[in-house]
Amino acid sequence: MSESAALVIALLVLGWAALSGLLGRHSVTGPLVFVVVGYLLANPDWGLVQVDIEVDALHTLAEVTLALVLFSDASRINLAQLRHDLTLPVRLLAIGLPLSIALGGIVAALMFDSFPWALAGFLGAALAPTDAALSAQVINDRRVPMRLRRALNVESGLNDGIATPVVTFMLAVAASQLGLVTDSPSAEAGQALRELGLGIVAGLVLGIGGAWLINVAARQGWIGHGGRRIATLAIALGAFEAALVIEGNGFIAAFVAGIAFGGTLRSGAADPERAGELTELGGELLALVVWFVFGAALLPIALDHVEVKVVAYALLSLTLVRIVPVALCLIGSGLGRGDVLFVAWFGPRGLASVVFAILAVESLETSTLLDDAVGVVAMTIAFSVVLHGFTAALGGRRYNQPDVTAPDAGDPATLEMPRPRPTNFA
């Protein structure tokens, strides 16, 4: 990324921070602003600034961003508080998510016959996770029943971490199927599983060990002002890097570390909410940069691949591939048809899918099918940013009265962790 691009992003962040509340009231989200500005100012054909998606530094930035988001979301899980209403989140994550991945992969294999099965599976897995930041207005709308808001919030906080090993597995096998590596698909699959196991180990060690250290320091009065926040950020980054050092999966390490950290810290002397503030804010800030990169480098690829089947798959991914699994997993949940459709529609594709597309560029950079696959992912994300962004304000209108019996959705005790990542700095 050039110095001029860094300057533009810094000024854009400043402007967004100042106007975020005003723009948010008109359904203009941070991702939408950064995507549009990135496309207009850094487009490869006419842009005033230069952004090269193949630069290693951008890949590292995207990976660190996802690691922070995974850790932050996972660390806010409070199973003790969620026990009284686990039904919907568990259904969405344990049944709906696998069905979405499978259905997305099957539809991709049928529509793109040149894709090997693993590349089609990558599309299904990369576009399955949802992003609460793009539907935060719905999650914070008190007219929407608390049960639905909580389900959407918890689902979006955890499904990217669950989908990550599937994405990395599919990319490893696809690289072998496309002849980009010499190992057989089974060898690549075995390596992906080993990376998964090493990532889990690294995450558990850093998450539990780091939280224990903070607990001890807090009880003894050793830790100074801001120390908890800095230590938490160090644990998140440390887990990610530790996994890479031992050739494990850094994303899995960050996700597992977040779960272990949250559980250990919550049972100790430190406040998990205050401890995670810096990590959450860092992930939010870097996410805006990633959205700028998406608009600058990935959106042009999508627009260069505007074909009937690409547009059709993008729309199917946001509708059929999401709605059918959600409807199936919510059978017997007690929700009406309108509520099921509401939950199914508000599953926007966001940051995780962007980072997965960048991972595909890194893993399959010499493949002739790379642009096709990345174009499909980018087209789907672009549609989601616009459609979900502008329909979020309409979401609560189907419910007549505010849920006056429940606290505001921004209250941690209400949404039971994880909270939706904000799209502003207000």
Please describe what this structure looks like.
By secondary structure, the protein is mainly alpha-helical. The two termini are 28 Å apart. Helix 3 (56-75) packs across helix 10, helix 5 (87-111) runs antiparallel to helix 15 and helix 10 packs antiparallel against helix 11. The chain is globular, with a radius of gyration of 21 Å. It is built from 19 helices and no strands.
Sequence-ordered SSE layout with sheet pairings:
Layout: H1 3-24, H2 30-42, H3 56-75, H4 79-82, H5 87-111, H6 117-126, H7 136-139, H8 146-177, H9 185-220, H10 227-245, H11 250-266, H12 272-275, H13 277-304, H14 308-318, H15 320-329, H16 337-345, H17 351-363, H18 370-395, H19 412-415
Helix pairs in contact: 1-2, 2-13, 3-10, 3-11, 3-13, 3-17, 5-6, 5-8, 5-15, 6-8, 8-9, 8-17, 9-10, 9-11, 10-11, 13-17, 13-18, 14-15, 14-18, 15-16, 17-18
What's the quick description here?
Helix content is 72%, strand content 0%. It is an all-alpha fold and 426 residues long.
Keywords:
426 residues, mainly alpha, 19 helices, 72% helix, disordered C terminus
Number of strands: 0
- Report the CATH C-level class: Mainly Alpha
CATH superfamily (homologous) name:
Na+/H+ antiporter like domain
End-to-end Cα distance: 28 Å
Contiguous uncertain segments of 5+ residues: 407-419, 422-426
* Main beta-sheet annotation: none
Helix/strand-derived category reads mainly alpha
- CATH names the topology as Na+/H+ antiporter like fold
Quote the average pLDDT: 85
State which percent range the strand residues make up.
under 5%
